[in-house]
Write a structure and sequence with these properties.
heterodimer, A: alpha+beta, Dbl Homology Domain, Chain A, SH3 type barrels, 4 domains, 7% strand, B: mainly alpha, 0% strand, DH_dom (chain A), guanyl-nucleotide exchange factor activity (chain A)
Chain lengths: 735, 249
């Protein structure tokens, strides 16, 4: 059978694992078109070309590849992306549809049924106040996508998706803003229902009856979804971006859309805070702190006597002739203030430095191929939100409201500080001339300078000190408020995950016990694996014995016993009185050291000859086991460690390990002849023969869905571990 | 979900040349990812601890500054701030300890398996090379004319081949058993870590909210938006700049 060879898709949009040096050449990442063109020219003759993007380990297998005469329209163009991108796009769209459907279910069906309850539920409609705008935004997004009549597999779909999202972004923000700002009210109302057990049971019954296929036990199960959905867009869009080639025409647009989704979240959170502040102010006017801060005015500072000033006077021993207690108090306060400001600024900068360090470790960017599991996905969403908008907003507010004003305040310290020093200089001059009765013109000038500066400082320092301290106080209040807002943003995020994690209902003590025991269990299993691998590694190969070796063995065993038999692992050629041994020669060990106590030289019996041999070249000799008859079905007990020796014929070698992988088509493949079979990406196949009739492993004989059999390129097939979420997109989280 | 473009899993283990590639690239990928996650988690935790300590220093330094003694109300505020920071730091430490036990240590242990696995893959490959070499030797004799000496050599070659082949089969089988199981085991292995990460943060931020909500009520002026705060700050700075003693030279 003629086996045409062809290139794999020319530009992958998969995030390929970055293999080390021994990677096979089949995992070829983006090639530049120029290189491809050259290859195509070279291989007109049909010679095999060797393409390797990494250095192949010697002896490692490499897949030979040549290009074919096929034109580029048979290979993937850049617009179509790869299966990963496709899945990510479908995930976004499918989950949006699911989300809208569930919201509609709750607002129409469930609410309708709850309204029929007697006595009527108080405040029920208030829970649904803002959900209509949210649903409207979602349905408009979906209808924009449907209108354009493009399917997710279509190259233009990504562009359509981004444009639709961007065109609706201000409406989305407006809708979600109100919804999230009022979400607390929803939980308050539901909690009020929960207070009455009979009523609550009735409500749950109605919910379950109205939506039997959904495992919901509360109204907030549905009503929390917008909270979750808006925070989800960044991760969904970024996942698409991750699997999209930067050369893709819609890439820039996609990047912009992802940034917009983050900006949306920032804006929505800011609005929520704004509303909280406004509401709070209306409810409780705590002006006491404001009063207290304002009391720190100029007079109160001036009047206070700092103990410090007394201390300093005693310690310095220099008592200026003119002791101005009031000035000293002001001056000391100023120095203490200055020190406080500089220290605070330094501490704030250290804090911000570590905050940036934290933001730089993007722990949400791992990829352990676990995107089908709830816990890792929840963690990724939480951490994405924390690192991409919640903490950055916190940092920005810290810089604007605390760091920048603090820097400005520090800069203003220079003036008074210099003036105080100048005053002291002038004071010393002044003291010299003060006693004189007749002052010259210059001496008058000096006296006046001193008095001016002194008065100026006396008048204005109190105000400076007071206002500066007020500023510091306010900043610290702001610092506390920023922390509260950060925590509040995170709490809102957590609300949507609380119900989804399997062990969230455990009490703290029980939960940590479970988590720690799981960690121990995992460690134990890893250790078992390591041990079993190492045991097999270290098992020596047992060679059959030649007749002369068998005689030697018998002779040594008769004389020394079977426990002392060792074998030369390599040729032993030695000098002096040591023995020469051939590789594989059997000896009996008489003493594990020489006469001088050196344990590296052992005294051995080589069938009559005696002498020393280096112990490093000897390995203990194990008797080969009896060969069991070849058996077609071998089942190994679990956790077998130690030496495993099985001899079985090549013909009967079915692997008895449990199938942990299933085979699927990673890309679409169009059959070009009757001996090939077409595949759609994602289709499961059964491999009949992993090579063609000539034994070439580049083609595999498979049975596709529908029972058709034919050849497909082996590297179009992929392994999918069983048990990992392989369901339709969006199947791992109710949405 | 990230599809790894593995080559086909051969139930007939004939095409050994590809198994090595499967093992090495899968293993390498998983090793790289877990090592990176471990490194990021460690650095993130260190930064987290440092941040918390820096916050404590902010309030502690202020409290030890004689500024505080100037006004009782100010002192009360500083005390309250200091208490809050210290409490947050202790919750943070607890959170970090939990994460260390349930996330960072397991990540490290998981990474520690790879040297053994990589060695096993190498040894298997070496065994395969030995096997192939001896196999072709046998085939060489099989093709020759069946004379006496040739038959003897053939028999010897076959005898030499058998244990080497068995050794390879054993190593091969073990890896074919263990590698997929190991790869698959990552899900069960890491699931608890992620749940623990989330739970630890939920607890921490819940406490943070409680502590700072109370503190803010106590020491912050209520009802201010960010714009209002900025305006107030600017007003105070202007007041200061208007003083003659604050000269701009």
């Amino acid at each position: 059978m003629e086996v045409p060879r062809r290139l794999p898709p020319s530009s992958f949009t998969l995030t390929l694992p970055k293999p080390a040096a021994s990677a096979p050449a089949s995992f070829v990442p983006e090639k530049d078109p120029e290189e491809e063109e050259n290859l195509r020219e070279e291989d007109e003759a049909g010679e095999e070309t060797f393409i390797s993007t990494e250095e192949a380990e010697p002896g490692a297998s490499v897949v030979e590849r040549s290009n074919s005469n096929l034109s580029s329209r048979d290979s993937f163009s850049e617009e179509s992306g790869g299966p990963m991108q496709l899945m990510a796009i479908e995930e976004l769209v499918q989950s949006e549809r699911n989300y809208l459907r569930l919201l509609q279910l709750s607002t129409v069906t469930i609410r309708g049924n709850l309204l029929k309850l007697q006595p009527p539920l108080l405040n029920l409609n208030s829970m649904f106040l803002h959900v209509d705008e949210v649903m409207d935004a979602s349905s408009r997004l979906l209808s924009l996508l449907d209108q354009k009549r493009v399917r997710p597999g279509d190259p233009l779909f990504l562009q359509t998706l981004c444009e639709s999202f961007l065109s609706l972004s201000s409406d989305i923000e407006a809708a979600y803003k109100e919804y999230l700002a009022n979400y607390n009210h929803i939980t308050v109302v539901e909690n009020s229902y929960k207070q009455r057990e009979g009523l609550w049971n009735e409500i749950v019954r109605v919910i379950k009856a109205s939506a039997p296929e959904v495992n919901a036990t509360s109204l907030t199960f549905f009503l929390v979804m917008p909270v979750q959905r808006i925070a989800r867009y960044p991760l969904l869009l970024q996942t698409i971006q991750k699997h999209t080639d930067p050369a893709h025409p819609a890439y820039a647009l996609l990047e912009h859309t992802a940034h917009t989704s983050i900006a949306l979240n920032c804006g929505i959170n800011e609005y929520k805070r704004f509303r909280e502040v406004a509401d709070k102010y209306k409810k409780t006017e705590t002006l006491t702190i404001k009063d207290k801060i304002n009391r720190l005015n100029s007079h109160s500072i001036a009047k206070k006597t700092a103990r410090l000033s007394q201390q300093i006077k005693h310690e310095t021993g220099i008592t200026p002739k003119l002791v101005d207690e009031e000035f000293d108090a002001l001056q000391d306060f100023f120095y203490v203030l200055e020190h406080g400001i500089l220290e605070l600024l330094e501490n704030v900068e250290t804090y911000l430095h570590h905050l940036q360090g934290f933001l730089a470790c993007r722990t949400e960017e791992f990829d352990l191929d676990m995107d089908g599991e709830k816990a890792p996905i929840c963690y990724k969403e939480i951490t994405t939100a924390l690192r991409q908008w919640i903490l950055p907003t916190f940092e920005k507010r810290m810089r604007t409201l605390i760091h920048r004003p603090l820097c400005a305040l520090r800069d203003l310290l220079v003036g008074p500080r210099n003036l105080i020093r100048k005053r002291l200089d002038k004071l010393l001059d002044y003291e010299l001339i003060e006693a004189k009765s007749n002052l010259s013109y210059e001496e008058h000038a000096v006296a006046n300078t001193y008095r001016t500066i002194n008065t100026l400082l006396l008048n204005e320092l109190p105000q400076f000190n007071g206002v500066a301290l007020q500023m510091i106080w306010s900043m610290l209040g702001t610092f506390s408020c920023l922390h509260r807002d950060l925590a509040s943003d995170m709490e809102q995020l957590f609300q949507s995950f609380a119900q989804q994690l399997p062990h969230s209902s455990l009490s703290p003590g029980a939960f940590w016990e479970w988590a720690e025991s799981m960690a121990l269990e995992g460690a134990r299993r890893l250790e078992t694996l390591c041990r079993s691998v190492e045991d097999t590694l270290n098992a020596p190969v047992v060679q059959p014995l030649s007749p002369s070796s068998q005689r030697r063995l018998k002779q040594l065993m008769d004389k020394h016993g079977s426990g002392k038999i060792w074998q030369a692992a390599a040729v032993v050629s030695s000098r002096d009185l040591d023995l020469n041994l051939a590789k594989g020669e059997l000896v009996a060990v008489i003493s594990e050291m020489d006469t001088r106590g050196d344990r590296r030289r052992w005294l051995v019996d080589a069938g009559g000859r005696r002498g020393y041999a280096p112990s490093s070249k000897l390995i203990r000799y194990h008797q080969p086991a009896e060969d069991p008859p070849p058996s077609p079905h071998l089942t190994l007990p679990d956790g077998v460690t130690g030496i495993r020796r099985h001899s079985y014929s090549p013909e009967s070698r079915p692997l008895t390990s449990q199938p942990c992988f299933q085979v699927m088509a990673a890309y679409d493949f169009a059959a070009r002849g009757s001996h090939e079979v077409s595949l759609r990406a994602g289709e499961r196949v059964r491999v009949l023969e992993p090579h063609d009739k000539r034994g070439n492993p580049e083609w595999s004989l498979v049975e596709a869905r529908g029972g058709q059999r034919g050849y497909v390129p082996s590297n179009y097939l992929t392994l999918m571990p069983l048990g990992v979420g392989v369901g339709p997109p969006g199947s791992y989280l109710p949405h | 979900s990230n599809w790894l473009p593995f080559l086909v899993w051969f139930q007939f283990s004939n095409s050994h040349m590809f198994i090595n590639d499967v093992f090495t690239s899968c293993g390498q990928w998983l090793e790289d990812q877990t090592k990176k996650l471990h490194k990021d988690m460690k650095k993130s935790t260190e930064a987290d601890l440092a941040m918390s300590k820096a916050a404590v220093k902010i309030s502690a330094d202020l409290l030890s500054n004689p500024l505080c003694e100037q006004d009782q109300a100010f002192l009360d505020s500083m005390n309250a701030l200091d208490t809050a920071m210290k409490r947050m730091d202790s919750f943070n430490q607890e959170k970090v300890n939990q994460i260390q036990k349930t996330v960072i240590d397991p990540l490290k242990k998981y990474s520690g398996v790879f040297p053994s696995l990589n060695m096993a893959v190498k040894r298997r490959e070496q065994a395969l090379q030995d096997y192939k070499r001896l196999q072709s030797k046998v085939e060489k004799y099989e093709e020759k004319e069946k004379t006496g000496p040739v038959m003897v050599k053939l028999h010897q070659a076959r005898e030499e081949l058998r244990p080497v082949r068995d050794d390879f089969e054993a190593k091969n089988k073990q890896l074919l058993d263990e590698m997929p199981k190991f790869y698959h085991s990552r899900i069960d292995y890491f699931q608890p870590s992620f749940e623990a990460l989330i739970r630890a943060q939920v607890v921490y931020f819940t406490e943070m909210y409680k502590i700072f909500n109370d503190l803010t009520d106590q020491i912050d002026q209520a009802g201010l938006t960010d714009e209002q705060r900025e305006r107030e700050t600017e007003a105070k700075l202007s007041e200061l700049r208007a003083l003659s003693i604050v000269a701009d030279d």
